[in-house]
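Annotated sample (chain length 293).
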Amino acid sequence: MRKTLLNASFEESNRITANLFKGAPFWYDTGGSGSQKISARLFNIIPLIMFSVLFYALGVFLPMNTTAGDVLYGLEDIWMGIGYFQWLRPILIFAITTWSVTIVINIFPKSNYMIQRIFGVTILLLMLLLMFLALMPMALGMTLGAVGWVGFSIICLYGMSWYLDKLSSKIQSLKLELYRELVVSSPSLFSKIWKFLKKIWLVAAMFMVPNIVFFRIGMWGDFTLWSFVWIIGGGLYFGILVATTVLLKMVISDYYFAKYSNQYRVLWKVSDEQWFGKRKAKRLAKKRLKEGK
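Output written by the structure step:
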């Protein structure tokens, strides 16, 4: 059998699957969305409203309703780059709607803890997706306005290569944990690309900086020092994207928890109350009592 990230056996999956009922790392916590208590799940309506408003404001309202005259002097031309990300508006609204509906559905009781956990992880991943969609117009839009299409392409090339290299490395490290052997002996394509780009970063910078100051190919407006400030925006955006690779182990761990839920329930000695909740656990206890008689 081919040793991929998603086809490990139950015994192999034990090596990366944390006990969700005892001693799981703090980043495995999905908050109220993964709780068996209806009050905790109901409380998620408050952050739902708060973050939905925040994401809409960052991703839709500010980019669409702030004019060049509303921004600081020297940022008018840079602000124009945000306009190229208006296509994200319907996608962001759809994502907010999907996230909201999922949280509302999550309020209702689930048949067992495994299904509740799936909802909790899904809500967390949707929130991360929303965050990236909401930040994209502001962070990458002003980066585009600051450095033009040439610089923007270079920043995105480096940012995505960095992200894919870290993601590929994380996948390989998880395979190593699962199978206790290196599944791929040679570096991945993404690792090779990132290694090459790191070697020529000075060439890329020497090409991008003179273009911002003198040639201004693919740019608009006059030169401003704000251009160098907003280079950081793109780097920060991709930096946050790279940071989320730490969650990959949690996602894969939960995949195996769902795949082998019955085995893990026995292994972790999960009680009926922990697995089904108090009400169903009481019904099962009464049923067993009657059957025992």
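Annotation: The chain is about 70% helix and 0% strand.
Annotation: The radius of gyration is 24 Å.
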